[in-house]
Design a protein that fits this description.
Layout: H1 8-20, E1 28-32, H2 35-45, E2 55-59, H3 61-64, H4 69-75, H5 90-97, H6 102-106, H7 110-130, H8 132-157, H9 161-175, H10 186-217, H11 223-253, H12 259-263, H13 272-305
Parallel strand pairs: 1-2
Helix pairs in contact: 10-11
């Protein structure tokens, strides 16, 4: 390392080197302090795109709680299937074991540092291999204990596991959704969307009327045609209900509750009060989302000192 700070090209180089030594069908879990940034860079710029499908990303436990709540939802190893109790702090454990050398090596030259650290590396490697079975046994005991505690909590809650998993997926989807931004044309865009939804609803109404007319004029003996028409009617009915629901929600967001307001919808384009109202709602939603995220971020810290 020739400069301070987290340089992504160091991590990318190590990842590339690792994959050259592994079989092509292996799937690798990557834990790193800033894995979220590395993953984003790989997606945005196409770094190591030939290896990207074979990787799962998570943030090392020691740094996970320093990230934003959205990042914790997507990158915390305890919240991602496959990582289980892995902490990703192997290097941290190693440097913790040789921290006694820091005072003396801080004032040493590079050659002396290498002379001192190399034997330490080899000794730690041999010591780790010698105690490998014991460490695996300890981790297994700890994993079984965590499993028993988790099952006891689930049994006490008396909630089906599938329900909890679905609730968790919904929470992740909701709290990681992209937030709206303020826009001077936001009200006009919302009005155009409502007008478009109304046209779509009217087209679906017309389509259903035509299908009903066709069905009425079709002979009863032609069962195959009747079945096709019924399927089209069912699909059109579902689409109509969905569009109507979205339309009502969009009109409610604009405060168009009365028939008079809906009738003068086109005249509301460029309305300054409506623009301020829409932007105020966006600002309110962003503040609420940030407060909720911060509350989740500080939850574990508050439990620690209470």
């Amino acid at each position: 390392l020739t400069s301070p700070g987290e340089k992504q090209y160091y991590a990318l180089t190590l990842i590339e080197r690792l994959f050259t030594e592994l079989p092509n069908d292996w799937h690798v879990g990557l834990l790193y302090d800033i894995t979220c940034q590395i993953q984003r860079s790989m997606v945005k710029w196409g770094f190591l795109k030939e290896y990207f499908p074979c990787m799962a990303f998570a943030v090392s436990v020691f740094h996970a709680f320093r990230h934003q709540w959205e990042c914790q939802l997507r990158g915390h190893p305890r919240k991602i299937e496959g990582f289980r109790l892995t902490d990703g702090e192997g290097c941290g454990h190693f440097w913790s074991n040789i921290k006694r050398l820091i005072p003396s090596l801080r004032i040493s030259g590079p050659n002396r540092r290498r002379l001192v650290l190399d034997p330490q590396f080899h000794h730690m490697k041999k010591d780790t291999l010698r105690n490998l079975a014991l460490n695996i046994k300890k981790k297994r005991v700890r994993a079984k204990k965590a499993m028993r505690e988790a099952k006891a909590i689930l049994k006490e809650l008396a909630i089906d596991e599938d329900v909890l998993r679905q609730e968790w997926k919904d929470q992740v989807q909701t709290q990681t959704a992209k937030l709206d931004r303020q826009d001077k044309n936001k009200a006009d865009k919302a009005l155009e969307r409502i007008l478009s939804l109304r046209e779509e609803r009217d087209d679906l109404h017309l389509c259903m009327c035509m299908l009903w007319e066709t069905r009425w004029n079709t002979l009863k003996d032609n069962l195959e045609t009747l079945m096709c028409i019924d399927e089209d009617l069912s699909s059109a009915q579902q689409a109509l209900e969905s569009t109507t629901k979205v339309l009502h929600a969009a009109e409610k967001a604009l405060g168009l509750s009365g028939a008079e307001a809906k009738a003068r919808l086109r005249s509301l384009k460029g309305n300054e009060l409506l623009r301020y109202q829409m932007n105020a709602r966006v600002l309110k939603n962003r503040i609420c989302s940030k407060v909720i995220a911060q509350r989740f971020e500080r939850g574990r810290l508050e439990k620690a000192y209470r």
